[in-house]
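A quick aside before the break. I want you to see a complete sequence-to-structure record at least once, exactly as it would be stored in a machine-readable document. Don't worry about memorizing anything.
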Amino acid sequence: MDNNEINRINQSGTVIPGPGPRPVGRPVDIPPTGTTSFRSVLDAATATQPATSTGTSGTEPLKFSAHAMQRLQSRNISLTSDDVTRMNAMADKAAAKGAKNSLFIVRDVAMVVSIKNRTVITAVDSDSMKENVFTNIDSAAII
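That is the input. The structure line, written in tokens, reads:
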């Protein structure tokens, strides 16, 4: 079809059909061929993301919120480096099982831990644990 024929059709009021249908099962390259496609960028990005943590050394260590630090100090609770190492390993296990907020019991201390944020939210000593209800947790671990 040449330009004269297109102009003639436009003047007569006839609707010009658009491009033909895309073949079924053939993905569209965005941006067009010749540049990097969206699909290849997406595939590359998802291939480089780390898998779910299973206790490897590449996981982020637990942090303690300001509230948890205040509770530890006011209640004279001390944790050893071994305690924290075991808590990190348990956080990895909890994450692998899909936990979001977990109650960790280490010796005579209970701590609510956000597994997703890898943050200890609060800490309670054995005296304060008596007749206490822990809410908003979906798992518990005795370390």
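Two observations worth writing down. The two ends are 78 Å apart (CA to CA). Residues 81-96 form the longest helix (16 residues). We'll return to this after the break.
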